[in-house]
Amino acid sequence: MTTDEVEPPAFALARAGDLQAVEPLIEILRQHPKRATRATAAHLLEKLGDARAIPALEAALNDTSDGGFFEQDTPVSDLAADALLAIYHRAGVSANDIQRLMHVLEQEADSRDYARLILTQLNAPVEQILISHMASLNLRGRAAALIILGKRRYRPALHLLLESLTDPEPIIRDAAVLALGALGDTSAFEAVLHCLTDPIYAVRRSAQFALAQVSDERHISALEQVLAKSTLTGFERHDLEKALQAARQRPTPT
Predict the structure, then answer these.
(1) Architecture of domain 163-254 in CATH?
(2) What mean pLDDT comes out for the span 52-62?
């Protein structure tokens, strides 16, 4: 807001911790024409931590304007994601909340990336719900769920991730490779290495990147053999050299 604008009364109430501000703030977040005012409403809803704001904050995950060249401020969507995490951490997250966020993963909108971030960072046991409902998601949703499991370093998902490397859909294979890299389990090295022969370039590139995260000193020879090939591009060679360096620095697990 500019200095000559009158601040909505709900802002003062919210700063004082008065929960009577929640409903007016929700209305501002949903309807106010000014991006900066909506952003302030999202921030204050985070401070109040009231679960009534969850639906409006989830809708605001698509409010990605940063104010343009002359404003360059934090998007409302960033503040909404922060507020949702704070409310979930304070009030708890239910199975319905997790399933609702999972369905956001299916969308093409910007909210999908925020839902993935929230599900990755939630301080709650979301993994079993992700796995049990994954089959009902579309391809985008399934791919995002696999990556979340990897980033949460959920080792019981290792078998699922390895199985997904042979999925007929490239988006699923790519997500599985990235998830295995995030999981960082060196027992996945051979499976990730095999993905260097995948017919889809994006999957091969993801495998080259992931190898640095699943390599240890047992894998030095295999990586040297791959690097000996003359058909590698500069980018490919760079990522594989990083994997070799990681392997040399990481001892065999005891």
Answers:
(1) Alpha Horseshoe (1.25)
(2) 94
